[in-house]
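User: Fold this; C-alpha cells only.

Assistant: Input:
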Amino acid sequence: MESPATAFLHFSLLTAAAASLGMVASADAASGAGSKPAPHTVHDFRAVTIDGVAQPLSVYKGNVLLIVNTASKCGYTPQYEELEGLYRRYRDRGFVVLGFPANDFMRQEPGSDAEIKAFCGTKYQTTFPLFSKISVKGKEIHPLYAYLTRDSGFKGDISWNFNKFLVAPDGKVVARFGSGTDPLAKELTSKLEAILPVR
C-alpha cells in the first residue's frame, strides 16, 4: 500500500501531465484557428491576365468554364480556332474559355505575354480570356494547376499542351479531356450543354 506521501506525489505528477496536454491541445487549436482553409473550387484562386492584371477567378462564378493550357508552336495549336468557335457558340449562355499559355512542353510557348496575345488575336482572332504565361507542372506549377491536377477529383499531371478541364458554375471540375479531344467534339459539348446555367 502506498504511503500518503507517495500517493500525493503520483497525484501531482498526473495533474502536471494533464495540464501539459491541455496546453498542447490549446496551442494546436489556436494554430488551426487562424489557418487558411484549403481551396475547394476553381473560384478560390487568382491569376494574372495576359495584360498583367491580377484577377480572382471568382469573377466567373455562375459560368461554365473550359480551362486550357495553350501553346503557340504545338501540333495542337490550331485548336485555338475551335476553342474560339466553342466560346462564340455558348458565351451568351454563360460559358467562358480560359486560356493559360505554358512553356512546359518542348518549349512550344517561348514568347512574351504581348507576343502570345498578338499571335492569338492575329492568327486565330481569339476573344476569350487569356492569362499570363504560367507553369502547369513541376516545381513552379501555378496553384490553380496544382489544384486541378491533385485535388479537383481528376488527378494526374498535365500530359501535353491543350489539356482541358470543364468546370461547373459552382467552380467544381466535372470533366477532363486530353489534348487530342477537339473542343467541338460531341463528347465535350454534350457535357458542357448539360451544365449550362439556366438563363
